[in-house]
Predict the 3D structure of the following.
Amino acid sequence: MQVAERLRWFFDSHTAVVNLHKANDLRVMLLGMVDDPRVVLIKLADRLHNMRTIYALPPSKALAVAQETLLIWCSLASRLGLWALKAELEDLCFAVLQPQMFRKMRADLASMWSASNRVGCPRRISAKSSSLSLDDTISSPDDESLTAFDEDIPSMKDLLEAVVPFDILSDRRKRTKFLYELGKGSDSQTKAKVVQDAGIALASLEVCEEALEKELLISTSYVPGMEVTLSSRLKSLYSIFSKMRRKDVGIHKVYDARALRVVVGDKNGTLHGPAIQCCYNLLDIIHRLWTPIDGEFDDYIVNPKPSGYQSLHTAVQGPDSSPLEVQIRTQKMHEYAEHGLAAHWLYKETGNKLRYTSSMDESDIEASSYLSKEMEDNSSLDDDLFMKYSSLKAGHPVVRVEGSHILAAVIVRVDKGGRELLVAVSFGLAASEVVADRRSSLQIKSWEAYARLFKKVSDEWWREPGHGDWRTCLEKYTLCRDGMYHRQDQFERLLPTFIQVTHLTEQEESEYWAVVSAVFEGKPVDSITSRPSLDSVASTSMEASINNKVRLLRTMLQWEEQLRSDASLTQSNLSGNSYGSLDSVVLGEVVIVCWPHGEIMKLRTGSTAADAARRVGLEGKLVLVNGQLVSPSTELKDGDVVEVRV
């Protein structure tokens, strides 16, 4: 079979759907796990063990099991936030379904991250590694870049051994022991090359961690007393392959194939401001240690993702001159990202409309002249970049970043269609507390501080760079080719200091400009009602438990619906296979939650609110569905919350 055909078969047939019996089993498992999540954990653990030992099955059976695992169990693990387990399952499936591509990518990453590429050594990335792109994946199997592997074809067991277990990746002590065992004398000679390549990838993480730890020990002034925790991870080969295919780029352009995560302790959230300042100081340290990659800095602290996810992301040239991603966040942000509403599947599927890309944060004189030299030609800026800031107007809030110092600022004037901004900076208003929690119930007070700064500048008629007083100063900023507004001094030199434009949601924008109007008109700001905070929703412990149950049930039902939709769409393009369509599977039931005790009830498809009242023995009573009073003939849907008024 041609490689192109195998790829098409891989991305289509893995979404081939299960039969009616399995679909019903899936629904039973989903409902069971809502009452006791341990059910699905046992199922996932069993599937992981099966995939680790899948080499014992006949090839045809192994392919079928891997397809089902990739379709159902990897997606389910992702929904539950079990990222490490999901990554291992994905790579195990990838090794079974696409062994040749799996082996090639392992070799190319090992070539990029090998010891010969350390600083001080000439970088050796073979043409084979640097050119692994979508074009290579659809070439014929006789391609020279693939035939090199035929000399040493590993068994399926070797390929599965090259997938590093998730517990080793997450435990540094286990990882060190694993590398020691892998590198021991004669044992290392008997290991297949693909397994040795996996060891090289792990070793590169060790080198990156040690280099950053050493730098942090030297730079002890980042924030005295702050506890900093360092961890690392390797992106699954399947995720890398999917990203290459989606973006049509080579493997050397996947900047997050390996990553370090730096978490700053904030004393259970009591030190928000200092912890955020520490994050920006650590960013400055990392950019001094390793060269940042242009356009690969994302500030999700100032501009959180729609899910509320906050972190600093930057990509740098690591110690082996290959890309390395570094994430920096506070402990509270980390817990929210791992266990809160900013779960990975949620912000991935919701999409990120507030994405802001920028780069470089230098702090010395040489950096200043370098920026001026590299960014003086603004005529090459894309039109899309101007469209991005075309709606900016005077009074819009921004954040000024200079090293670890972040200050509140507002736009005073927009010039040249958004190419240049005149910005008023308040040196007495630290922005660290403002950006610490955009969901805070005190957000109105934060907007009031920005509004009063804007009113002060307007009342004083300050209109040129340098105007101001000891607490407020007007500065000029220019939009540069890296997508950031850099400060311009009186000699028109571009400086490392930059501003982050604060992206507002529709509700935030409405609130902000209402506050600005109130401040300018001298009205009390307290009269403006802020949106309720997610954390301030009052509920008893029982209600909170039921709400979590409802949220989990709806999440799993939505996942099941998406699974069916994806499978049915793919099925319409496939012919002659032995699978039945999930779209044609009629389960004949809807699942609802009965308030106030949270019982899960199954009714026939087409059941109405009156049927639900009859089932609980309260026929003829008023029925509320999802908090709204409805007519008795209202048809119920999966995940509805039904309350019958006595």
About this structure: The two ends are 66 Å apart (CA to CA). The mean pLDDT is 75. The longest helix spans residues 541-571.
